[in-house]
Amino acid sequence: MMALWAYSGERGPAHWCEKFPDANGNRQSPVNIVTKNALVDASQGPLTIDYSSARCTEIVNNGHAFQVNAQSSDTNLSGGPLLHNYRLAQFHCHWGSKDGQGSEHTIDGKHYDAELHMVHWNTDLFQTTGDALSHDKGLAVLTAFVKIGKENSGWTKLVALLNKVKCKDDKCCIEDGFDPSMLLPENKKDYWTYEGSLTTPPCYESVRFIIYREPVEISAQQIKSLRDLLSYKQSGQPESGHPEHLSDNYRPTMPLNSRVITASFHDK
User: Which of 162, 165, 203, 260 has its CA 20 to 30 A from that of 93?
Assistant: First the structure.
């Protein structure tokens, strides 16, 4: 069956609003972060991140990206700009087909090579991820930029798992668990934050983004494991006019409009 949306062509981002009207909203994501315009709010305090009991049970190639699903009831994201407790639901990445592109958010107009999204849902106000998905304050997405550099041992296990989900709809059980905190940068105190949306359809305006200032480094070989993922099923072939590989799966930046981006740090 033909996908309802894509990252290029007649079902690309410019056309998402035809089937998903929220994509035309006023608080869409991603955005360009102009660092000199960010409002410093040191009173936000530190984030509390507890993935110690995270049960990441499955990795899936959904035809747009890889996604690792989490089922633990004990993970927690709170503090900082968040007024509620949030639980990890899944994480995924966006990346480019070549160096210098791939992140969804940009910093002063600059793209990183990839962007990691840890998606959490509000357990104080909602009963399930599905309930939270379309409501204000429903989701919090912890975001890390990824750049090509030295090999990152924290990403070794993820890279090995990617080799098991090469094609669309491939899935694999994660037998011995996975610690998502291994994927994050060391500096977790410095971040930007703003209110936005899902960056993929249906583009619900339900997300508080928390974007780490410090990028994560991974090697060229490690990012190749992302670029080698395929957009079609094992028994099939790429859709006409669409690329063979899963790459450039990032939405262009959207207008900030009247929103304010705050920073937890003073720019030096």
Answer: 260
The strand pair at 106-107 and 216-218 is best described as: unpaired
Q: What's the structural domain count of the chain?
A: 1
Taking CA atoms, 210 is separated from 9, 219, 221, in Å, by: 30, 24, 28
CA 158 to chain centre: 15
Quick one: tokens of 75? 């993970």
Residues designated catalytic:
64
Determine, yes or no, domain membership for 237: yes
DSSP state of 68: E
According to DSSP, the β-strands at 262-263 and 39-40 are parallel
Burial-class residue 42 by CB neighbours within 10 Å (0-12, 13-18, 19+): exposed
- What does pTM read for this prediction? 0.96
SS3 (DSSP) at 221:
helix
pLDDT at res. 239: 67
Give the contacts of 263 (CB within 8 A, at least 6 positions apart): 35, 38, 39, 40, 41, 190, 191, 192, 193, 213
Tokens 């993970």 belong to which residue? 75
What confidence score (pLDDT) does residue 30 get? 99
